Amino acid sequence: MLQIIHCTINGKEEEIAIDVRESLCDMLHNRLQLTSVKKGCEVGECGACTVLVDGKAIDSCIYLALWADGKHILTVEGLQGPNGELNPIQQAFIDEAAVQCGFCIPGIIMSAVEIAGTGKKYTRAEIRKLISGHLCRCTGYQNITNAVEKAVNLLAEK
After folding, report:
1. 136 conformational bin, left if phi > 0, alpha if psi -120 to 50, beta if neither
2. How many CA atoms lie within 13 Å of 11's alpha carbon, on the beta-carbon side?
3. Distance of alpha carbon 115 from the chain centroid
4. Which pTM does this prediction carry?
5. Is residue 158 very low, low, confident or very high in pLDDT (cuts 50, 70, 90)?
6. How far is Cα 129 from Cα 27, in angstroms, rounded to an integer?
7. HSE-up (13 A, CA, CB side) for residue 103
8. How far apart (Å, rounded) are the C-alpha atoms in residues 128 and 132?
């Protein structure tokens, strides 16, 4: 059964006919070609599909597209500036060499955007806990934690 939803994705108003059983991950990745949204475990355990819905990081693989009706959705594609410049969080991941294969990184970046949005500074232990819902098989998390810490603390100073 198809249903039309209306939502804002990366700042753009969208009207999309979706299957009521379709996940937000599938809608974003397959229909809208937002390839930063990755399908990993499909049960909300790995964090690869993390996007922001109304500013809150969610696992889009277990969030129905139907629930996105009327919501604001942000993916990594929506982070770049007006001239294509990287968001400070994305730049921190580059500066700290936090990217290897890149599969998990978009989801972690989106969680970092939510964390940075609080305007608070966090201890390293708090940051580790806040990103603990993300699985990375390449990096060992050290550089990822460095990048999130750098970005969050930099943005908290602004």
Report:
1. beta
2. 7
3. 11
4. 0.94
5. low
6. 29
7. 11
8. 6
User: What is the C-alpha to C-alpha distance for residues 110 and 114, in angstroms, rounded to an integer?
Assistant: 6
Nearest to 113 by CA among 142, 154, 71: 154
pLDDT tens digits, 125-144: 999 999 999 998 887 789 99
Angle at 60 between CA 58 and CA 64, to 5 degrees: 110
Half-sphere exposure of 146 (CA within 13 A, CB side): 14
d(CA 12, CA 75): 12
Please state, in angstroms and rounded to a whole number, the distance separating the CA atoms of residues 158 and 144: 22
pLDDT given for residue 139 in this prediction: 77
Percent over 90 (pLDDT), the chain:
85
Q: What is the per-residue pLDDT across 72-93, written as a single tens digit (0 to 9) for each?
A: 999 999 999 999 999 999 999 9
Choose among 30, 52, 40: nearest CA to 134.
Answer: 40
Contact 86, 94 (CB under 8 A): yes
